[in-house]
């Protein structure tokens, strides 16, 4: 599609990519420049001199007798932000899915999405199905993670871009998601009376989460459970430590009894129950 010089200048200010531009949108924005009452007369003149006539900021400052050259630039950019917002509102689709603006609080993310014509969950899901993304992978993964926290749990299953999936795994580790899952599993265990998380940490180099818990069993025995999780390899290393009191002649001393088990996520619950059982047996 061929655009006029005026349209080309407007496209450069309004769109992230030229392919997104339409004549209808450009005409709508030009009409706003002429008629929108929220644009002051000075700002309207600045925009027209810049877009319609293609003048430089210093020329605009001279014509409008502005004291500082950067005033024209600042006011022009402010008006462009307003026009982009009005265009987004004008074009906002209703595809039956939730508007992203009601979920995401990061305005920069919303702006990047809108500049690619993405306003709804449905539209965002479409780009997740593509291996080559319009938007940088770290931004996409951050948005996916935020949406997951808002209840949209099915997004990872449709993601085709491997970098986004890797970024999401890293976000999980940095937020101790797998340690959280293990804690929830412990609290639901029939052998457990109470659970208190003592530590959690994460190492970037080995991509490993670490956590430790004080676990009180139903018979009031307490053990220290330590875990290291390599989610990329689907490996869980569990270690249960129990302090026992023993005696030798007239002396009593403390001895730490340790039980370890390694498993994958599929067998994690049964391995955890087994570890708690054998740890308890070691004290009795």
Could you describe the 3D structure shown?
The protein is α+β, with helices and mostly antiparallel strands and 284 residues long. The longest helix has 23 residues, at 69-91. A 5-stranded antiparallel sheet has the order 1-2-3-4-5, covered by helices on one side. The protein has helices spanning 5-14, 23-35, 41-51, 57-63, 69-91, 107-114, 121-128, 137-149, 162-174, 177-187, 268-283, and strands spanning 192-203, 208-217, 222-230, 235-248, 251-263. It contains 11 helices and 5 strands; from the N terminus they run ααααααααααβββββα. Helix content is 47%, strand content 20%.
Short description:
By secondary structure, the protein is an alpha+beta fold.
What attributes does this structure have?
284 residues, alpha+beta
- Helix count equals 11
Q: Provide the low-confidence segments as ranges.
A: none
Strand order of the largest sheet: 1-2-3-4-5
Structural class given helices, strands, pairing? alpha+beta
Radius of gyration: 30 Å
Q: What does the oligomeric state look like here?
A: single chain
Largest sheet: 5 strands, antiparallel
The span between the termini is: 81 Å
Strand composition percent:
15-25%
Count every beta strand, where a strand is a DSSP E run of 2 or more residues.
Answer: 5
Shape annotation: elongated
Helix residue percentage: 40-55%
Q: Look at the structure and give the mean pLDDT.
A: 89
H/E series: HHHHHHHHHHEEEEEH
